[in-house]
Amino acid sequence: MRKKITVMMTVTALFLGGWACYGMPSPPDTPQPRCGAMERPDKPEGFPAPIARALELSEAQKKQIGSIVDEQRGLDHARMKKERELRDQLRGIEEAVPLNEAALQGTAQKLAALDVEHLVSRAKTRARIEALLTPAQRTLAERLRPRKEDARPEPPCGCGPDRRGDYAPMDETERR
Predict the structure, then answer these.
(1) Helix axes 101-132, 59-95, angle to 10 degrees
(2) Rounded to the nearest 10 degrees, how much is the dihedral formed by the CA atoms of 64, 68, 70, 76?
(3) Does the pTM exceed 0.70?
(4) Residue 16 near residue 39 (C-beta atoms within 8 A)
């Protein structure tokens, strides 16, 4: 009986201690994180710190890149707001009982135009940033840029172009 009471008291103390720590407010001087991004003093806002260090950017370059990224971020937020509104309109049109195909196509085309605008804007921003770099920094940045084909994950079933996994289709000889 004594053992049960001790265990219950320990569990209760741990639970209440965890609850008390969880409910404690953070100190007032603690800066709040912005959109999940960590603030780092050694990089322009929105520019990857390891690349900024590797390229050995000057202070002027950091400021210019930071302003370009901030400008692009503002444009992206406005574009995302328009995109959310269009997606809401699209959902409403799709759920309407008599389908209005013309309205659906028009809203879908507006949404596609926003996607094109985003791709062009991203390419322009990249070109503006690269224009600020010296030729040596540009070649180094090109080598540091991650490639999509390098980041491709392994297929979950083990079936890639070179080997078969458990769920891959059978060969002709295995079917017999």
Answers:
(1) 170
(2) -170
(3) no
(4) no
Q: Which residues share a beta bridge with 158?
A: none
Q: What are phi and psi of 39, to 5 degrees?
A: -85, 130
The Cα–Cα gap between 32 and 59 comes to 26
Cα end-to-end span (Å), the chain: 68
Highest average pLDDT, of 53-67, 82-96, 141-155, 158-172, comes from: 82-96
**What pLDDT, on the 0 to 100 scale, is given for residue 54?**
81
pLDDT in tens, 73-97: 999 999 999 999 999 999 998 888 8
Interior angle at CA 54, CA 149 and CA 150, nearest 5: 10
For residue 50, give both structure tokens.
């390891």
Which of 71, 61, 58, 51 has its CA nearest to residue 124? 71
- Provide the CA 92 distance to its chain's centre, in angstroms: 27
